[in-house]
Design goal:
The protein is mainly alpha-helical. The chain is 79% helix and 0% strand. It contains twelve helices and no strands. The chain has helices spanning 2-24, 29-51, 61-84, 87-94, 99-107, 114-135, 139-165, 169-196, 212-234, 238-245, 248-259, 266-284. The longest helix has 28 residues, at 169-196.
């Protein structure tokens, strides 16, 4: 059951990333974040009511609020990076977010084993190889790499904060709901500021109604992925769940190759692959 739900997590996260990246190529990335997360907040609110999650309310929810403030910055950076592409490099590099909880563990006195040390080294080499060609290329490519690393830092921070926000499955749903509501409020405020500065909130021609299902899919897939990961972690070793769930960039990359016909340089593909291998080593360490 652990493997099944963890692999489902990879599939859902990978497709959500791919969908969010495509939407960000047609609409402002901040609009994608606000609309998709609004759908996610509504769905999580229903789950919290159905599971009685309100009983888990307490001071720990402030961690969820903090995660909700960091989350929009990470998502905005990630969607912008995916819009600039290529997805086959951006998505694997974003998995370096796992380095954040590892660093927190080191600060608290934990010491990495040989596997984790090797994972850190491999991941750094992967970043250099995947980002190096981009840094020598057009400015747009350099920006994509920088935004991806910002997103990775944000995602890792959110992971740590959400972990601290709950100790039970129902508490997890409540903390994710609070996080999403904060995401929407913070993202909405940023969107209002951007509009006042002259940045359009909608794509040219307005937000097409036939695009709304895509926004809903991105938000709901993200929520479902969080749910399947929680089930996987509850029914088996967390290490196994984390490793299998961290394979989601493979889904994004395959979707980009299949639907967008993306082509990567050999060194970029190798670097992205090493970054993913490093992430797996960190997760299993």
């Amino acid at each position: 059951m652990t493997a099944l739900f963890a692999l489902a997590t990879s599939l859902l996260w990978g497709l959500a990333d791919f969908g969010g990246g495509l939407l960000a190529r047609r609409a402002p990335a901040l609009t994608v974040v606000v609309v998709s997360q609004s759908v996610a907040a509504a769905a999580l609110g229903a789950v919290v009511v159905a599971t009685g999650g309100w009983s888990e309310a307490g001071p720990r929810l402030w961690f969820a609020v903090a995660a909700g403030l960091v989350g929009p910055v990470a998502l905005l950076s990630f969607y912008k990076a995916l819009a600039l592409g290529p997805m086959g490099v951006v998505s694997p590099l974003a998995t370096l977010s796992v380095a954040v909880p590892v660093s927190v563990g080191l600060f608290l006195g934990e010491r990495p084993g040989w596997t984790q040390a090797a994972g850190i080294a491999v991941a750094v080499v992967g970043v250099v190889l995947a980002g190096g060609p981009q840094l020598r290329g057009p400015a747009v490519r350099r920006r994509a790499v920088l935004l991806t690393l910002v997103a990775a830092l944000g995602f890792g921070t959110v992971f740590v904060l959400v972990t601290e926000a709950s100790t039970t499955v129902t508490g997890l749903f409540l903390s994710l709901f609070v996080q999403r509501v904060t995401n929407v409020l913070a993202g909405g405020a940023a969107l209002c500021v951007a509009v006042r500065r002259g940045t359009p909130a909608l794509p040219e021609g307005g937000l097409a109604w036939n695009a709304l299902p895509a926004y809903a899919f991105v938000g709901l897939a993200d929520v479902a992925a969080n749910g399947t990961y929680a089930i996987a972690a509850q029914h088996g070793p967390v290490t196994v769940a984390a490793v299998l769930a961290s394979l989601y960039p493979v889904v994004t990359t395959l979707a980009a190759l299949g639907f967008l016909r993306e082509r990567l340089r050999g060194i970029q593909a190798a670097g992205a692959g090493l970054a993913l291998v490093g992430t797996l080593l960190l997760a299993t360490g």
